[in-house]
């Protein structure tokens, strides 16, 4: 401890404020050369050890909760797999195989009758239909230019040169026709010379000729070439001359390049014009036909054609909208072609999309109703369209028909939803239906247009049967008719499905056992930082689950057939009999002999079903009692566990069950004229398992009972019924595992308690830390006072020494 004397002084240094780990604000200081922060931190750290121990405990507890949760999940999966094997439907599954699915396809439901079914389909059922009259169609918007191009231009057709036919059409340019001539076998060459067409024979001499004939295209006329024969000459030249001719017409009449020329007195220049906001460019090499092709391909939704020498623009889509909108034109094309916005002829919407009152021929439809197969539909001609009415019909669940509008024939068709001779009854028949709106009569849907369907003609094992909509339900199986012919359908137990479910169980069982065995045999490791290592070593809860699960492989159900009393009899074992396998024993795994399982499922599926999932036992002729002539009430052996009603016999006579309030003594011939009672009666109380007779059985009469009783919670229950019950006790909400790891379980409560202790210890240490800093601060104040006094005494002594000298 620092000391103060007249010959020395203690220096006190103060620094900025800091915060401790527990949150208290203090002065970082030294007192008499001591590091106060270090002293207090060491003190608090030493006293924080209980907090660290509690936190470590909570880490282990949380690890246990996590491990329990994982095991609970595995047990839940096992429980679901085990429960799946208790359902009767697991063992009544059927599969159906057709020898020819082009004739019949088949599906077998649970409980369907196994067997072989020969199905002969002579004809399929057809569907009843009715078709309306054709409706007026819609039109497309169009613009036709007023100026004619190429009055002498070529048209679709042919001409011949030297007997060789050349085919041309109206969209061919002059160059196109020249190319066709040169590619032909006419023996001539066509070329351009001085903007005119020249045709020259390929061989020289007077014998070489060019014969022009049979022009239906107007090509010769447009090129000013005269039909006939032109001959070459023999002259002094070695090779002579070749026959040739040159037309006098210019290419402007042959759809030649138009850019930069004058057409109909109007110049067309290079540049662009717009249709429906799409730009079409005109180049120096374009012809009327290439411009038309550009318009069609532009994406403007417009098709351009040349008709009677005029440009025609036609909207590709039917209807009032979209339309054709002409934009700016820097080429003069619109002007030259005489195309104006005013020349637009608007299209009309298709008949099926217009209000009924706007469709030609349907003006007489009024607001009202029409009916199909007794189902009524409302019609408003100002709002409804053909499409909206069709939607109403197709949305109906009672009309039993489907409606369709054919955009090619412009007719409405009705077809029955069921195949066969199903009548489609229209309101126009005037029976129970209606056509107050005139809709059916106006569109031409009348009863006389109906084409009645026909039923399928089919036999099953040579027995004629009736098919509904080309489907047959026979012995619990469904056969769908596909086409004419004969097919054999084989229905059998779905063994594959059963085996798959049993394999799923074994997989889930082994996974659960792995999780449990791993944790209960895993020892702790002092060097490990993983809190889960060894956290459940030897855990009694898990050990109990493990032992219970292992036990199912050896349980014998004596109430079942002697050939099917334990799992090994269906091929489910813990290993090969007589073979010692330590690893197999330790793992607790189950193994499956699939061959043995399949054999059991084929030979006696009901016995396998009982071994796995039995929940009832039948009592046959239980000896209830012997009558004494006075006792009317008796209790059956299995009382309230009885399922359904028992059958009671007295000396072999079967009695009649009635409600207790209706019990009447046997009296076949009443003397008072009342109603005879010709049966021996009894009542049954299912809550207590007691029977009460209307007449007490006679003395020494033998009373026997037949009934089923519930064993779902007893040792006679199927193995997987018992397993499901066991697993449920562990996995259910609030069950055994939840008592450990649930929100209110032992582990959770311990962690909650530890957290409270940790919070309390932290609070106390923060208070102690604050107290320690207060003490050291007081010490600082005291030392400062002593330091001042020491300085004063030193100064005083120095003064006295000076004055004495």
UniProtKB/TrEMBL annotation:
Coiled-coil spans in chain: none
All residue ranges annotated as the Flagellar hook-associated protein 2 C-terminal domain in the record: 453-787
Subunit note: Homopentamer.
Protein's organism: Pelosinus fermentans B4
Subcellular location: Secreted; Bacterial flagellum
Keywords: Bacterial flagellum, Cell projection, Cilium, Coiled coil, Flagellum, Secreted
Residue ranges, annotated region (Disordered): 1-22
Similarity comment text for this entry: Belongs to the FliD family.
Domain Flagellar hook-associated protein 2 N-terminal: 33-126
Record protein name field: Flagellar hook-associated protein 2
Function: Required for morphogenesis and for the elongation of the flagellar filament by facilitating polymerization of the flagellin monomers at the tip of growing filament. Forms a capping structure, which prevents flagellin subunits (transported through the central channel of the flagellum) from leaking out without polymerization at the distal end.
GO cellular component: bacterial-type flagellum filament cap; bacterial-type flagellum hook; extracellular region
InterPro entries, per the entry: Flagellin_hook_IN_motif (IPR010810), FliD (IPR040026), FliD_C (IPR010809), FliD_N (IPR003481)
One annotated GO biological process: cell adhesion
């Amino acid at each position: 401890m620092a000391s103060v004397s007249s010959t020395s002084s203690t220096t006190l240094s103060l620094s900025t404020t800091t915060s401790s780990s527990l949150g208290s604000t203090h002065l970082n200081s030294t007192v008499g050369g001591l590091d106060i922060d270090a002293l207090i931190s060491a003190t608090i750290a030493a006293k924080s050890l209980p907090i660290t121990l509690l936190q470590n405990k909570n880490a282990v507890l949380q690890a246990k909760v996590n491990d329990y949760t994982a095991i609970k999940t595995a047990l839940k999966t096992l429980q679901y797999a085990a429960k799946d094997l208790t359902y009767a439907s697991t063992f009544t599954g059927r599969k159906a195989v057709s020898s020819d699915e082009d004739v019949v396809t088949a599906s077998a439901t649970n409980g369907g009758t196994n067997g072989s079914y020969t199905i002969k389909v002579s004809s399929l059922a057809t569907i009843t239909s009715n078709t309306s009259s054709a409706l007026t169609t819609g039109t497309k918007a169009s613009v036709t230019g007023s100026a004619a191009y190429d009055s002498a231009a070529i048209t679709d057709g042919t001409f011949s040169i030297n007997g060789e036919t050349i085919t041309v059409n109206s969209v061919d340019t002059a160059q196109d026709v020249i190319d066709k001539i040169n590619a032909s076998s006419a023996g001539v060459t066509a070329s351009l010379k001085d903007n005119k067409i020249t045709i020259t024979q390929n061989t020289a001499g007077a014998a070489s000729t060019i014969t022009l004939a049979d022009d239906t295209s107007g090509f010769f006329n447009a090129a000013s070439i005269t039909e006939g024969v032109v001959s070459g000459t023999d002259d002094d030249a070695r090779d002579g001359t070749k026959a040739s001719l040159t037309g006098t017409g210019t290419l402007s009449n042959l759809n030649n390049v138009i850019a930069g020329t004058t057409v109909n007195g109007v110049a067309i220049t290079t540049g662009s014009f717009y249709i429906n906001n799409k730009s079409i460019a005109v180049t120096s090499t374009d012809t009327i036909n290439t411009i038309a092709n550009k318009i069609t391909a532009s994406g403007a939704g417009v098709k351009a054609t040349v008709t009677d020498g005029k440009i025609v623009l036609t909207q590709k889509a039917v209807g009032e909208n979209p339309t054709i909108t002409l934009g700016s034109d820097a080429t003069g094309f619109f002007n030259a072609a005489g195309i104006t916005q005013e020349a637009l002829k608007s299209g009309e919407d298709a008949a099926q999309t217009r209000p009924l009152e706007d469709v030609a021929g349907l003006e007489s439809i009024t607001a009202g109703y029409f009916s199909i197969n007794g189902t009524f539909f409302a019609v408003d001609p100002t709002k409804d369209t053909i499409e909206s009415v069709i939607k109403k019909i197709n949305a109906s669940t009672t009309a039993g028909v489907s409606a369709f509008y054919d955009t090619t024939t412009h007719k409405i068709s009705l077809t029955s939803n069921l195949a066969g001779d199903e009548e489609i009854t229209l309101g126009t028949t005037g029976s129970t239906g209606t056509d107050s709106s005139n809709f059916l009569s106006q569109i031409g849907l009348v009863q006389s247009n109906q084409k009645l369907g026909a039923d399928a003609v089919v036999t099953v094992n040579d027995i004629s049967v009736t098919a509904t909509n080309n489907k047959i339900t026979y012995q619990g199986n469904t056969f769908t008719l596909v086409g004419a012919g004969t097919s054999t359908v084989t229905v059998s137990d779905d063994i594959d499905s059963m085996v798959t479910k049993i394999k799923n169980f074994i997989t889930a069982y082994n996974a659960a056992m792995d999780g449990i065995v791993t944790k209960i045999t895993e020892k702790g490791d002092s060097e490990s930082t993983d809190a889960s290592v060894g956290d459940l070593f030897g855990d009694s809860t898990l050990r109990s689950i493990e032992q219970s699960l292992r036990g199912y492989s050896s349980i014998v159900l004596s109430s079942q057939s002697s050939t099917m009393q334990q799992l090994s009899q269906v091929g489910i074992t813990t290993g090969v009999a007589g073979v010692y396998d330590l690893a197999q024993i330790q793992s607790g795994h189950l193994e499956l002999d699939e061959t043995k399982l399949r054999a059991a499922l084929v030979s006696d599926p009901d016995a396998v079903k009982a071994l796995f999932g039995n929940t009832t036992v039948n009592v046959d002729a239980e000896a209830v009692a012997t009558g004494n002539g006075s006792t009317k009430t008796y209790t059956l052996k299995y009382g309230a566990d009885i399922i359904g009603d028992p059958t009671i016999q007295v000396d072999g006579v079967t009695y009649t069950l009635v409600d207790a309030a209706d019990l009447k003594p046997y009296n076949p011939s009443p003397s008072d004229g009342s109603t005879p009672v010709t049966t021996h009666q009894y009542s049954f109380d299912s809550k207590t398992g007691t029977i009460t007779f209307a007449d007490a059985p006679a003395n020494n009469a033998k009373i026997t009972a037949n009934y089923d009783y519930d064993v779902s919670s007893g040792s006679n229950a199927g193995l997987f019924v018992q397993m499901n019950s066991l697993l449920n006790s562990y996995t259910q909400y609030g069950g055994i595992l939840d008592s450990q790891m649930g929100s209110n379980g032992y582990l959770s409560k311990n962690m909650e308690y530890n957290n409270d202790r940790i919070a309390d210890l932290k609070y106390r240490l923060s208070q102690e830390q604050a107290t320690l800093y207060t003490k050291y601060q007081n010490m600082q104040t005291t030392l400062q006072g002593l330091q001042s006094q020491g300085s004063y005494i030193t100064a005083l002594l120095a003064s006295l020494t000076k004055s004495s000298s």
